[in-house]
Design brief:
By secondary structure, the chain is mainly α. 58% of the residues lie in helices and 8% in strands. Helix 3 runs antiparallel to helix 4. The chain starts with a helix and ends with a helix.
Length: 163
């Protein structure tokens, strides 16, 4: 019931802000149960002060015509901050180093996983007297290996895209 009341309050707040800022009242009956209403004419009701939602900024409209519209979109891109070439090269270099480190770490992890997997015949542990547990662990190992291989492929794609 509390969740319903909170949801009703949230809906009332959103609807009130979307329209002409309707008032929301919380009414408490003799048993202490709370009810949210849009009218406060009954006894035991008090008005809630809800913050209004900020108005969304209106997009700038380009002038009519093909050339004017193209100029408007170019103007929007021109206002975007530019980074000088040296700074961008330094950023790309740092990114490349990070990706190479991640790739090295992931390849090392994959090698360890494959060594533990032992070509599909990992060692059985003492707590795996039940063969089903062993199979679950082997399936988990296969999933881990596949995930590591996907990560390596993704890192190699990212490295290929770095300038």
């Amino acid at each position: 019931m509390k969740f319903f009341a909170a949801g009703a309050l949230l809906c009332a707040a959103c609807l009130g802000a979307a329209r002409a800022q309707n008032d929301v009242y919380v009414c408490t009956d003799e048993n202490g149960a709370k009810e949210y209403k849009n009218t406060g004419a009954t006894k035991g009701c008090r008005k809630l002060e809800l913050p209004g939602l900020p108005a969304a900024p209106q997009p700038k409209r380009a002038a009519q015509g093909g050339a004017a519209a193209a100029a408007g979109s170019a103007g929007a891109a021109a206002g975007f901050p530019k980074v000088d070439t040296g700074t961008q090269k330094a950023r790309d270099s740092d990114r490349k180093l990070l990706l190479q480190e991640e790739l090295y770490t992931e390849e090392k992890k994959l090698a360890g996983l494959k060594a533990d997997f032992n070509n599909g015949e990992p060692e059985r542990r003492g707590d795996e007297r039940n063969y089903a547990r062993y199979q679950e662990r082997v399936a988990g190992m296969k999933d881990d290996i596949a995930r590591a291989e996907r990560n390596i492929a993704a890192l190699k794609r990212e490295l290929a895209n770095v300038r």
